Amino acid sequence: MRPIQVLIRASDPIVRAGIGAMLSTCAEIAVEASGPADVIVLAERTVGAGRLHALNEHRPARCVVVTDRFDSGSVLLAVQLGVKSVVPAASATAALLVAAVTGATRGISLMPPDLQAALLRELDQMLQANGLSMALLDSREREVLSSVADGLNVVEIAARIGCPDRSVRNTLRGVLDRLHLNNPSHAVAYAFRSGALPVPIGHAAR
């Protein structure tokens, strides 16, 4: 299997070397000196809109941000630019960084609770501005999003609900287009927030 190509962007060379050393402990990851990359690791003390816009040059690569201070007002922008996970620098162990990078290639997001809440608020404001509500999902859409929340991919969802893969993709695309959302993870998050889907016990306890 081809290793995940990772490019580390950090203004501090010591930080860059440290992250590279931690990621190199995983055989699935290849740390590259230059692109193209599957995943960008952006490591800076403070991350806001300015640094995030620099990710445009690396699209469609996914991104993992490692930082001490993340501007919560830029969280929706971050997701739109391909950021999958935000790892607090203080807790950036090798295991956590590897999980964030490998998860990014599978569409898995890791974010602190405060940034998850900020994302939901921004989505809520955006949808309300368009006069939209996630609670208007039909039964098939809720079934598909519930399966996404369970971590299933398109093929697995199709098998679970007994329909063609294409139907699952069309359902997801219809929800995203209608509600002006960026990806299935956004749709699931807002479904929990609006009550269209029941919140799992693990999430409710946070």
From TrEMBL:
Gene3D superfamilies: 3.40.50.2300. It holds the Pfam family GerE. Residues 130-195 form the HTH luxR-type domain. The keyword Transcription applies. The keyword Transcription applies. InterPro entries: Sig_transdc_resp-reg_C-effctor, Tscrpt_reg_LuxR_C, WalR-like. GO terms for molecular function: DNA binding. It comes from the Bacteria. SMART domains: HTH_LUXR. Keywords: DNA-binding, Transcription, Transcription regulation. GO terms for biological process: regulation of DNA-templated transcription. PANTHER family: TRANSCRIPTIONAL REGULATORY PROTEIN NARL-RELATED (PTHR43214:SF24), TWO-COMPONENT RESPONSE REGULATOR (PTHR43214). This is Response regulator transcription factor. It comes from Kribbella antibiotica.
